[in-house]
Inverse folding.
Protein backbone atom coordinates (compact mmCIF):
# COMPACT_ATOMS: atom_id res chain seq x y z
CA UNK A 1 0.00 0.00 0.00
CA UNK A 2 1.14 3.53 -0.77
CA UNK A 3 -0.55 6.91 -0.62
CA UNK A 4 -0.18 9.38 -3.48
CA UNK A 5 -0.32 13.13 -2.96
CA UNK A 6 -1.54 14.76 -6.19
CA UNK A 7 -0.14 17.97 -7.60
CA UNK A 8 -3.39 19.72 -6.65
CA UNK A 9 -2.33 19.22 -3.01
CA UNK A 10 1.43 19.63 -3.41
CA UNK A 11 1.11 22.91 -5.33
CA UNK A 12 -0.04 24.64 -2.13
CA UNK A 13 3.43 24.24 -0.59
CA UNK A 14 6.52 26.04 -1.96
CA UNK A 15 8.84 23.37 -0.53
CA UNK A 16 8.65 19.80 0.71
CA UNK A 17 10.80 16.85 1.69
CA UNK A 18 10.19 13.15 2.24
CA UNK A 19 13.60 12.36 3.73
CA UNK A 20 15.13 15.46 5.32
CA UNK A 21 14.68 14.27 8.91
CA UNK A 22 16.41 11.96 11.41
CA UNK A 23 13.13 10.46 12.65
CA UNK A 24 11.94 6.93 11.90
CA UNK A 25 8.63 8.23 10.56
CA UNK A 26 10.52 9.44 7.47
CA UNK A 27 12.29 6.12 6.80
CA UNK A 28 11.55 4.90 3.26
CA UNK A 29 9.68 8.14 2.58
CA UNK A 30 6.80 7.23 4.89
CA UNK A 31 6.23 10.85 5.93
CA UNK A 32 6.48 14.21 4.24
CA UNK A 33 7.28 17.68 5.56
CA UNK A 34 5.30 20.43 3.84
CA UNK A 35 6.54 24.03 4.08
CA UNK A 36 3.72 26.59 3.64
CA UNK A 37 6.20 29.49 3.41
CA UNK A 38 9.93 29.85 2.81
CA UNK A 39 12.58 32.42 3.64
CA UNK A 40 13.96 34.00 6.80
CA UNK A 41 10.49 34.79 8.21
CA UNK A 42 9.03 31.83 10.10
CA UNK A 43 5.73 30.56 8.69
CA UNK A 44 2.78 30.53 11.09
CA UNK A 45 -0.23 29.35 9.08
CA UNK A 46 -0.93 25.62 8.69
CA UNK A 47 -3.13 24.84 5.66
CA UNK A 48 -4.45 21.28 5.64
CA UNK A 49 -3.06 18.92 2.98
CA UNK A 50 -5.97 16.48 3.49
CA UNK A 51 -9.76 16.47 3.67
CA UNK A 52 -11.75 14.46 6.17
CA UNK A 53 -13.05 14.20 9.71
CA UNK A 54 -10.85 15.11 12.67
CA UNK A 55 -10.73 12.02 14.90
CA UNK A 56 -8.61 13.41 17.73
CA UNK A 57 -6.02 15.96 18.76
CA UNK A 58 -3.52 15.56 21.56
CA UNK A 59 -0.42 17.24 22.93
CA UNK A 60 2.90 15.41 23.07
CA UNK A 61 6.08 16.21 24.97
CA UNK A 62 8.94 17.37 22.75
CA UNK A 63 12.68 17.11 23.45
CA UNK A 64 13.91 20.20 25.37
CA UNK A 65 15.63 22.72 23.09
CA UNK A 66 16.46 26.35 23.97
CA UNK A 67 14.92 27.65 20.74
CA UNK A 68 11.75 25.53 20.84
CA UNK A 69 8.53 25.03 22.76
CA UNK A 70 8.11 22.04 25.07
CA UNK A 71 4.95 20.63 23.52
CA UNK A 72 4.04 19.49 20.04
CA UNK A 73 0.59 18.42 18.86
CA UNK A 74 -0.82 15.47 16.93
CA UNK A 75 -3.90 15.81 14.73
CA UNK A 76 -5.62 12.68 13.35
CA UNK A 77 -7.87 13.02 10.29
CA UNK A 78 -9.76 10.14 8.66
CA UNK A 79 -9.72 10.84 4.93
CA UNK A 80 -12.94 11.46 3.01
CA UNK A 81 -13.90 8.77 0.51
CA UNK A 82 -13.64 11.43 -2.23
CA UNK A 83 -10.43 12.96 -0.89
CA UNK A 84 -7.99 14.15 -3.60
CA UNK A 85 -5.35 12.07 -1.80
CA UNK A 86 -5.17 8.63 -3.42
CA UNK A 87 -5.55 6.25 -0.48
CA UNK A 88 -7.73 3.29 0.57
CA UNK A 89 -10.99 4.07 2.42
CA UNK A 90 -10.45 4.48 6.15
CA UNK A 91 -6.87 5.75 5.83
CA UNK A 92 -5.93 8.11 8.66
CA UNK A 93 -3.60 11.10 8.26
CA UNK A 94 -1.22 11.96 11.12
CA UNK A 95 -0.23 15.64 11.27
CA UNK A 96 2.31 17.19 13.62
CA UNK A 97 3.85 20.59 14.43
CA UNK A 98 0.51 22.43 14.49
CA UNK A 99 -1.24 23.87 17.54
CA UNK A 100 -4.75 22.89 16.51
CA UNK A 101 -7.70 25.19 16.03
CA UNK A 102 -9.76 22.11 15.09
CA UNK A 103 -11.26 19.45 17.34
CA UNK A 104 -12.63 15.92 17.12
CA UNK A 105 -15.74 15.83 14.94
CA UNK A 106 -14.74 18.83 12.80
CA UNK A 107 -14.49 18.43 9.03
CA UNK A 108 -11.55 19.96 7.18
CA UNK A 109 -11.01 20.43 3.46
CA UNK A 110 -7.69 20.73 1.65
CA UNK A 111 -6.41 24.24 2.29
CA UNK A 112 -8.44 24.84 5.45
CA UNK A 113 -6.51 26.11 8.45
CA UNK A 114 -5.57 23.45 10.97
CA UNK A 115 -4.21 26.01 13.42
CA UNK A 116 -0.84 27.64 14.02
CA UNK A 117 2.53 26.08 13.24
CA UNK A 118 4.67 25.42 16.31
CA UNK A 119 8.42 25.15 16.55
CA UNK A 120 8.90 22.20 18.90
CA UNK A 121 11.99 20.41 20.16
CA UNK A 122 11.77 17.85 17.35
CA UNK A 123 13.25 20.51 15.04
CA UNK A 124 16.94 20.98 14.37
CA UNK A 125 17.82 24.71 14.58
CA UNK A 126 18.23 25.08 10.81
CA UNK A 127 14.81 23.59 9.97
CA UNK A 128 12.00 25.95 8.94
CA UNK A 129 8.46 25.60 10.29
CA UNK A 130 6.38 23.00 8.48
CA UNK A 131 3.47 20.55 8.60
CA UNK A 132 4.53 16.92 9.10
CA UNK A 133 2.20 14.44 7.37
CA UNK A 134 2.06 10.65 7.46
CA UNK A 135 -0.62 8.04 6.77
CA UNK A 136 -1.79 4.99 8.69
CA UNK A 137 -3.61 2.00 7.12
CA UNK A 138 -7.27 1.62 8.12
CA UNK A 139 -6.55 -1.27 10.54
CA UNK A 140 -3.46 0.29 12.21
CA UNK A 141 -3.10 2.21 15.46
CA UNK A 142 -3.31 5.83 14.22
CA UNK A 143 -1.33 7.22 17.15
CA UNK A 144 1.86 5.38 16.19
CA UNK A 145 4.31 6.59 13.54
CA UNK A 146 6.12 3.28 13.04
CA UNK A 147 4.51 1.30 10.23
CA UNK A 148 3.18 4.28 8.32
CA UNK A 149 2.84 3.74 4.58
CA UNK A 150 5.14 5.13 1.88
CA UNK A 151 4.10 8.39 0.25
CA UNK A 152 4.33 8.90 -3.51
CA UNK A 153 4.40 12.26 -5.26
CA UNK A 154 1.84 12.82 -7.99
CA UNK A 155 4.37 14.78 -10.04
CA UNK A 156 7.89 14.22 -11.35
CA UNK A 157 10.36 16.75 -9.90
CA UNK A 158 12.85 18.50 -12.16
CA UNK A 159 16.52 17.61 -11.61
CA UNK A 160 18.79 20.69 -11.34
CA UNK A 161 22.46 20.27 -12.22
CA UNK A 162 24.80 21.86 -9.68
CA UNK A 163 28.60 22.00 -9.51
CA UNK A 164 28.76 22.87 -5.79
CA UNK A 165 29.42 26.59 -6.22
CA UNK A 166 27.26 29.62 -5.54
CA UNK A 167 27.00 32.98 -3.85
CA UNK A 168 25.42 33.41 -0.42
CA UNK A 169 21.89 34.80 -0.81
CA UNK A 170 20.64 34.30 2.76
CA UNK A 171 22.25 33.59 6.12
CA UNK A 172 20.98 32.17 9.40
CA UNK A 173 22.81 31.34 12.61
CA UNK A 174 23.21 27.69 11.56
CA UNK A 175 23.04 27.77 7.76
CA UNK A 176 23.52 29.68 4.52
CA UNK A 177 21.44 29.54 1.34
CA UNK A 178 23.22 29.93 -1.99
CA UNK A 179 21.92 31.41 -5.24
CA UNK A 180 22.63 28.16 -7.11
CA UNK A 181 21.40 25.96 -8.58
CA UNK A 182 18.90 28.30 -10.20
CA UNK A 183 15.34 27.17 -10.87
CA UNK A 184 14.62 27.40 -14.62
CA UNK A 185 10.88 26.74 -14.33
CA UNK A 186 9.41 28.30 -11.14
CA UNK A 187 6.18 26.66 -10.11
CA UNK A 188 7.40 23.15 -10.88
CA UNK A 189 8.91 21.03 -8.10
CA UNK A 190 12.68 20.71 -8.49
CA UNK A 191 15.72 19.58 -6.54
CA UNK A 192 19.48 19.09 -6.74
CA UNK A 193 20.37 16.45 -9.31
CA UNK A 194 22.64 13.51 -8.68
CA UNK A 195 25.12 12.56 -11.35
CA UNK A 196 22.55 10.03 -12.56
CA UNK A 197 19.87 12.69 -13.01
CA UNK A 198 17.92 11.74 -9.88
CA UNK A 199 16.54 14.39 -7.52
CA UNK A 200 18.24 14.20 -4.12
CA UNK A 201 16.29 14.59 -0.88
CA UNK A 202 17.48 14.51 2.74
CA UNK A 203 20.26 15.65 5.04
CA UNK A 204 23.59 14.81 3.38
CA UNK A 205 25.35 13.65 5.56
CA UNK A 206 24.00 14.83 8.92
CA UNK A 207 21.20 12.26 8.74
CA UNK A 208 22.01 8.58 8.02
CA UNK A 209 20.00 8.31 4.82
CA UNK A 210 17.95 10.16 2.27
CA UNK A 211 16.22 9.69 -1.03
CA UNK A 212 16.77 9.89 -4.77
CA UNK A 213 13.50 10.49 -6.58
CA UNK A 214 13.26 8.54 -9.79
CA UNK A 215 15.95 6.21 -8.51
CA UNK A 216 16.79 2.64 -9.32
CA UNK A 217 19.12 0.43 -7.35
CA UNK A 218 22.79 1.32 -7.35
CA UNK A 219 25.34 4.03 -6.59
CA UNK A 220 24.29 7.67 -6.25
CA UNK A 221 26.85 10.36 -7.10
CA UNK A 222 27.26 14.10 -6.57
CA UNK A 223 30.14 16.31 -7.74
CA UNK A 224 31.60 13.28 -9.50
CA UNK A 225 31.90 10.99 -6.50
CA UNK A 226 29.72 8.37 -4.89
CA UNK A 227 27.70 9.72 -1.97
CA UNK A 228 25.48 6.73 -1.28
CA UNK A 229 23.77 3.60 -2.52
CA UNK A 230 20.11 3.51 -3.53
CA UNK A 231 17.58 0.75 -3.06
CA UNK A 232 14.69 2.03 -5.10
CA UNK A 233 14.34 5.66 -4.06
CA UNK A 234 15.84 5.09 -0.57
CA UNK A 235 19.52 5.99 -0.13
CA UNK A 236 22.02 5.22 2.62
CA UNK A 237 24.75 7.87 2.57
CA UNK A 238 28.42 6.93 2.50
CA UNK A 239 30.80 8.12 5.22
CA UNK A 240 31.50 11.60 3.91
CA UNK A 241 32.43 15.03 5.20
CA UNK A 242 30.95 18.20 3.69
CA UNK A 243 33.12 21.31 3.38
CA UNK A 244 32.27 24.91 2.49
CA UNK A 245 35.34 26.82 1.25
CA UNK A 246 37.49 24.21 2.96
CA UNK A 247 35.77 24.53 6.35
CA UNK A 248 33.93 21.52 7.75
CA UNK A 249 30.17 21.91 7.51
CA UNK A 250 27.44 19.79 9.05
CA UNK A 251 25.90 18.90 5.71
CA UNK A 252 23.63 19.80 2.82
CA UNK A 253 19.91 20.19 3.44
CA UNK A 254 18.36 18.72 0.29
CA UNK A 255 14.68 19.28 -0.50
CA UNK A 256 12.23 19.83 -3.33
CA UNK A 257 11.02 23.35 -4.11
CA UNK A 258 8.98 25.23 -6.66
CA UNK A 259 9.92 28.82 -5.81
CA UNK A 260 12.15 30.93 -8.04
CA UNK A 261 14.69 31.49 -5.27
CA UNK A 262 15.70 27.83 -5.00
CA UNK A 263 19.38 27.64 -3.99
CA UNK A 264 21.29 24.98 -2.07
CA UNK A 265 21.16 25.12 1.74
CA UNK A 266 24.44 24.46 3.56
CA UNK A 267 24.11 23.59 7.24
CA UNK A 268 27.10 25.18 8.97
CA UNK A 269 26.58 26.31 12.59
CA UNK A 270 28.86 29.15 13.75
CA UNK A 271 29.79 30.05 10.18
CA UNK A 272 31.30 33.41 9.25
CA UNK A 273 29.73 33.75 5.80
CA UNK A 274 27.99 36.95 4.73
CA UNK A 275 25.52 37.67 1.95
CA UNK A 276 27.44 37.97 -1.30
CA UNK A 277 30.29 35.62 -0.37
CA UNK A 278 31.32 33.04 -2.97
CA UNK A 279 31.13 29.46 -1.68
CA UNK A 280 32.35 26.13 -3.03
CA UNK A 281 30.94 22.96 -1.48
CA UNK A 282 33.14 19.87 -1.63
CA UNK A 283 32.89 16.32 -0.32
CA UNK A 284 35.56 14.05 1.10
CA UNK A 285 35.42 10.51 2.46
CA UNK A 286 35.72 10.20 6.23
CA UNK A 287 35.66 7.42 8.80
CA UNK A 288 34.36 9.81 11.45
CA UNK A 289 30.90 10.88 10.21
CA UNK A 290 28.87 13.26 12.36
CA UNK A 291 25.23 12.20 12.54
CA UNK A 292 22.97 14.68 14.28
CA UNK A 293 19.54 13.90 15.74
Amino acid sequence: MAVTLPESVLERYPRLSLYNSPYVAHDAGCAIDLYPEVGPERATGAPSPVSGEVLDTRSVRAPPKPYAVEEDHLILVELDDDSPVDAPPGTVARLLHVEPSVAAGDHVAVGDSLGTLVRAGFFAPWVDNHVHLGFRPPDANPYRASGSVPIALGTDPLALDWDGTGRVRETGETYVVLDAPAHPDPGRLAGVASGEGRVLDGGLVHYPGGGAHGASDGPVTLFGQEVGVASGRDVIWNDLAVFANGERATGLSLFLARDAGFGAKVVCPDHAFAVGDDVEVTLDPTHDPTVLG
Summary: The helical segments are 7-10. The chain has one helix and 27 strands. The first strand starts at residue 3 and ends at 6. The CA atoms of residues 20 and 202 lie 4 Å apart.
